[in-house]
Amino acid sequence: MAGYLVLARKYRSTGFEEVVGQEPIARTLVNAVKTGRVAHAYLFTGTRGVGKTTMARILAKALNCLSADEPTPKPCNECEVCKAIGRGDDVDVVEIDGASNRGIDQIRELRANAVYRPARSRYKIYYIDEVHMLTMEAFNALLKTLEEPPEHVKFIFATTDPDRVPATILSRCQRFDFRDIPTSLIRDHLKSICEAESVEIADDALFRVARAASGSMRDGLSLLDQLLSAAEGPVSDAEVVSLLGTPPDERMLKLVGAIASGQTAAALTELDGILADGVTLESSATALCDCFRNMMLSATCGADSELIELPDALRDELASLAERYTVPALVQAVGVTQSVSRRLRGSSVARALVEAAVVRLAETEKFVDADSLVRRLEELSGSSASAGSAEKKKPAPSRPIGRR
User: Fold this and answer.
1) pLDDT of residue 306
2) Collapsed DSSP state (helix, strand, coil) of residue 42
3) Which domains are delineated in the chain?
4) Spatial separation of the C-alpha atoms in residues 55 and 75, rounded to whole Å
5) For 182-208, what is each residue's pLDDT tens digit?
6) Bridge partners of 159?
7) What confidence score (pLDDT) does residue 165 get?
8) Cα(157)–Cα(69) distance, rounded to whole angstroms?
9) Is 171 exposed, middle or buried (CB count within 10 Å of its CB: 0-12, 13-18, 19+)?
10) Which alpha helices (H) appear in 104-230, and where do they start and end?
11) SS3 call for 164
């Protein structure tokens, strides 16, 4: 029985045009290959699962593809070199894990081997993942080779923490910052994969998986893989909620509705029901913060805004709730929920913190600081008196203001 190939590997992009969410970077690299202006060193930065390794392999294919007489922006993915690079085991494209090969001895070995020409390709390419894990001695040993490498050598570095890469390395590389992939693009890509796999899945379920991926395509594919393994038959939204351990959007809107109505007891009861269903406090607090964020976006950008990460079927209900708040009140609610989310980890009274946040939001008018209110009134009173006095003393202009 052949081993199962996970979706993240089975559907890894094979060309620049296939990389989702990183079009500006792909376009720049395509133009570099077309014009022959390929740099000797690149640094790809970004969070996990946004396409750094995929882009590095595609660039390596573009430089070494045997189907063309020179580097091509459209590698064939059929020749032996393209296939080997796609598998990550090509003899001339050396992939190095910076976390486990971080010492000066490994870099000295790299420098010693770099002088030899590639076995069958145009370029010998070194791809170092998590390059920030190298020691300072290793970085220093790499400097000279990185600045003036042999003509047949290219370097591609990837990191999730560019601040830990020395400036001396950064200055010798062309840097590309990979952005988090928008939820809508992840959803569309997952949908195309489900169609290719002949899997029936609800649109709301796909959206929920894409949102849980938090900008990482690989995380989204891993979640989908897990979901397909657990589901029997068509995948429903309820199964996704059960898998992710997150509260349903409908229940969060019901909780926020009770808060908006000032029904503190009902809000706390709804929170208790969500927790009783197995949802963690951390997930509940995060979902509450997301809900108020979506309401803030609805109030400021409109219910149809692409910034709102919520299924279309619930947008009208969200907009109706948002109308019951002022924008400053929504901003404050986001601040309160974000603050409590940050304080939950390691707290021995985590549930009390979440419940206190719910009570504060439901009875927000009772939490006005009297001292600060008095000071504010005094400041306004003083400002009005000063403005009135200045107005009386101000001489009449001899000519219209703003004219010469």
Assistant:
1) 85
2) strand
3) 7-177 (3.40.50.300), 183-244 (1.10.8.60), 249-366 (1.20.272.10)
4) 13
5) 999 999 999 999 999 888 888 888 888
6) 45
7) 94
8) 26
9) exposed
10) 104-114, 136-147, 167-170, 183-196, 203-212, 217-230
11) helix
Whose CA is closest to 320, among 376, 274, 253, 382? 253
Can you point out the beta strands (E) in 248-303? none
Q: How far apart are CA 104 and CA 107, in angstroms?
A: 5
DSSP 77: S
- pLDDT tens digit sequence for 239-292: 887 788 888 888 999 999 999 999 999 999 999 999 988 888 998 999 999 999
Q: How far apart are the first and last CA of the chain?
A: 89
Is a pLDDT exceeding 70 seen at residue 337? yes
Report if pTM > 0.85.
Answer: no
The Cα 173–Cα 168 span in angstroms is 9
Q: In 1-81, which ranges are E strands?
A: 41-45
Mean pLDDT of 87-95: 92
Cα angle 281, 287, 292; round to 5? 130
